[in-house]
Design goal:
Elements: E1 7-13, E2 29-36, E3 41-50, E4 53-60, E5 66-68, E6 70-73, E7 113-115, E8 123-129, E9 149-153, E10 170-175, E11 177-178
Antiparallel strand pairs: 1-8, 2-3, 2-10, 2-11, 3-4, 4-8, 5-7, 6-9, 9-10
Length: 179
């Protein structure tokens, strides 16, 4: 059984991006420019390889208030308006979906994000995902032949429904690209 400590999250409201978004010391880094259903820019996600997994920092604006599913999807395509081109959740080990399910979570599962009522200043979220990598050849490599995408859903992930948490429609998407 996988540990429920497969990822950790910290959300900070209206906070500026951290320094790692601009620093590049040879550590593998990637970014995803997030777009909404109307192809409007809604923010950036920065990914940085660490010795313990990939630190994912999302700085988002323009989302509706409430709880949203936040996942990594298996294909690096974001064709609006429905983003179905990104495929299902990134799941290289064929695990079950959800942190509350025996045999889960899969690598694309991440904690929900909570967008505030007064979201004009945006939302900054940090997630450490220990099941993915930016290092070629490593298990959970995100930049394989068809790439991967970061996805925000209209509703909350229930952390158990198969195969994707019943999080509703896809409302924002960004292709993960090496920086």
């Amino acid at each position: 059984m996988r540990s429920l400590t497969a990822f950790a999250a910290l959300a900070l409201f209206a906070a500026p991006p951290t320094a790692f978004a601009d620093a590049h010391d040879g550590t593998p880094m990637a970014t995803a420019s997030m777009i909404g259903n109307d192809e409007e820019d809604i923010g950036t996600v920065t990914l940085k390889q660490t010795p313990n997994g990939v630190l994912i920092e999302a700085h988002l604006t323009g989302l509706s208030a409430g709880v949203h599913g936040f996942h990594i999807h298996e294909t690096g395509k974001c064709d609006a308006p429905d983003f179905k081109s990104a495929g299902g959740h990134f799941n290289p080990t064929d695990a079950k979906h959800g942190i509350t399910v025996e045999g889960g979570p899969h690598a694309g599962d991440m904690p929900n994000i909570h967008f505030p009522e007064d979201g004009d200043a945006g939302l900054r979220v940090e997630v450490l995902n220990t099941m993915v990598s930016l290092e070629e050849g490593a298990e959970g490599y995100l930049l394989d032949e068809d790439g991967s995408a970061i996805m925000v859903h209209s509703g909350a992930d229930d952390y158990e429904s198969q195969p994707s948490g019943d999080a509703g429609s896809r409302i924002a998407c960004g292709i993960v690209e090496m920086k």
